[in-house]
Amino acid sequence: QVQLVESGGGLVQSGGSLRLSCAASGRPISTLAMGWFRQAPGKEREFVALIIQSGGTRYADDVNGRFTISKDNVKNMVYLEMNSANTEDTGVYYCAANQYATTAARDFRWWGQGTQVTVSS
């Protein structure tokens, strides 16, 4: 079993930056694919970023170049650095873990409770 706890959400102005953190326990994240997803009101949960066991990363097109996913295997932490935020980035951000790499939300086995990010114009 893997437990995930997100933190770092809040209110940020358009063009600003925010750093989300995800604390994992139960299994080493070095053995897991870790992802960030977000869900805006009235919309489906969507893929944001992925970091795999080897450290390779993948991003959704609309955040590529603005967001950076990283991890610290020693601390068992995953991070999402959000830069040049815009109002379209508003939503609840979820940390997720899975045994294999995928960008599909339905395939991820473990989820955090989410943290709210609001970008004001």
Search tags:
single chain; 121 residues; mainly beta; 7-stranded mixed beta sheet
| 3D shape | globular
Beta-sheet strand percentage? over 45%
Low-confidence stretches: none
Rg, alpha carbons:
13 Å
Report how far apart the termini are: 40 Å
- How many helix segments? 0
Question: What does it look like?
Answer:
- It is a single chain.
- With 121 residues, the protein is mainly beta.
- 0% of the residues lie in helices and 50% in strands.
- It has no helices and eleven strands.
- The chain has strands spanning 3-7, 10-13, 18-25, 33-39, 46-51, 57-59, 67-72, 77-82, 91-98, 110-111, 115-120.
- Strands 2, 4, 5, 6, 9, 10 and 11 form a seven-stranded mixed β-sheet that branches. It has a four-stranded antiparallel β-sheet with strand order 1-3-8-7, with no helix packed on it.
- A hairpin with a 4-residue loop joins strand 7 (67-72) and strand 8 (77-82).
- The chain is globular.
- 31% of the residues are buried.
- The model has no long low-confidence stretch (mean pLDDT 97).
